[in-house]
TrEMBL record:
Protein name, per record: Queuine tRNA-ribosyltransferase
Region RNA binding: start-end pairs: 252-258
Annotated catalytic residues: 89, 271
Organism: Yeguia hominis
Molecular function (Gene Ontology), one example: metal ion binding
Chain segments annotated as coiled-coil in the UniProt record: none
Subunit structure: Homodimer. Within each dimer, one monomer is responsible for RNA recognition and catalysis, while the other monomer binds to the replacement base PreQ1.
Pathway the protein contributes to: tRNA modification; tRNA-queuosine biosynthesis
Length: 376
């Protein structure tokens, strides 16, 4: 259940209550694709750096170790030892992004595994069953993600198919929640808005999916080839059509600036691999901008990664040390950098929430939007 506490323009301060705890919004979801954050970070580490939600990947966990195995081991919460909310995506984006050969039909999608090439079929019912086996707090509806730019006619037909799939997802989830061996009978379903960069398709699709009165609504199919400005325009077009009393999720986005801009436009929750992926290559997000620790200038720099950060890494280690770890090929370099970047993202969200609570979001936006995205 989502509760809107207050607004500053379109920016929203709220709470989302789940069976695994309450999420303070705006919030960032930390991407644990296969049940772990890449970079040697466990679910237990996430508590220390202020994480609220873990996102796990339906497609990857279905392939390995298998959703039936996860169910037999007690579900994702027992398996990963994360006791807070977990969102599982539907697998639709991975079918779009990873499967080289895929055949999309009304029943669902047949595609080749990126691991060994064996053929797999996944449709709305299969996606719901996999997510039910995983026992996540929130399950995402199975959708078709279309690359931008797209042909208008194909995008329109894709929206219609995604809508039909959504009804099938809801029906299957209702059946699964009633089964006696279901891990999480209180699992929630969020629908996904599609329509590429065509505002009229986006608006019409949002009007249709909101009729289902789901637990939450996502804007999908962005950050897949369009410009940042196009993305912001789509958010502005869709936002007025999104229910005020439901949580709003912008999928796969993005940079700290993207997040700040989207919060300003009315989005509540985000996920992105960027903080962990960039960290593993020495790219560090800071209050002063983005820092590349691979650069030689950090060889003797005893400053913390971010002088304005109180994360466990910045309290203990220097730029020179982490630079040395990267140059030496030490795994610790990735772990420390991922911990810092995830802390930065979650702390950014806390600062946004504080600014909304204190009626100073506009000032916070102006102070930070031109700084946190620049390269140092």
């Amino acid at each position: 259940m989502y509760r809107l506490k207050k607004q500053c323009g379109n920016a929203r301060r709220g709470q989302f209550v789940t069976c695994h705890g309450t999420i303070e919004t705006p919030a960032f979801m930390n991407v644990a694709t296969c049940g772990a954050i890449k970079g040697a970070v466990s679910a237990l580490d996430l508590k220390e750096i202020g994480c609220q939600v873990q996102l796990c990947n339906t497609y990857h966990l279905h392939l390995r170790p298998g959703d039936e195995t996860v169910k037999a081991l007690g579900g994702l919460h027992a398996f990963t030892k994360w006791d807070g909310p977990i969102l599982t995506d539907s697998g639709g984006f991975q079918v779009f992004s990873l499967a080289k050969l895929r055949d999309i039909k009304e029943e669902g999608v047949t595609f080749a595994s990126h691991i060994d090439g064996h053929r797999i079929f996944m449709g709305p019912e299969e996606s719901m069953r996999i997510q039910s086996n995983l026992g996540s707090t929130i399950a995402m509806a199975f959708d078709e993600c279309v690359e931008n730019p797209a042909e208008y006619d194909y995008a329109a037909k894709s929206c219609e198919r995604t809508l039909r799939w959504l009804y099938r997802c809801r029906e299957e989830m209702e059946r699964l929640r009633a089964l006696p061996d279901t891990i999480n009978p209180k699992q929630m379903l969020w629908g996904i808005n599609q329509g590429c960069t065509f505002a009229d398709l986006r608006v019409q699709h949002m009007r249709e999916i909101r009729k289902l009165n789901l637990d939450g609504y996502a804007i999908g199919g962005l950050a897949v080839g369009e410009s940042a400005e196009e993305m912001y325009q789509i958010i502005e077009a869709v936002e007025p059509e999104m229910p005020q009393d439901k949580i709003r999720y912008l999928m796969g986005v993005g940079t700290p600036v993207n997040i700040l801009e989207a919060v300003k436009r009315g989005v509540d929750i985000f996920d992105c691999v960027m903080p962990s992926r960039n960290a593993r290559h020495g790219h560090i997000f800071t209050s002063e901008g983005c820092r590349n620790l691979m650069n030689a200038k950090y060889e003797r720099d005893l400053s913390p990664l971010d002088p304005n950060c109180d994360c466990p890494v910045c309290r203990s280690f220097s730029r020179a040390y982490v630079h040395h770890l990267f140059k030496s090929g030490e795994m610790l370099a990735m772990r420390l950098s991922v911990l810092h970047n995830l802390y930065f993202y979650n702390n950014l969200m806390k600062k946004i929430r504080d600014a909304l609570d204190e009626d100073r979001f506009d000032a916070f936006y102006e102070e930070n939007v031109s700084v946190i995205g620049k390269r140092i």
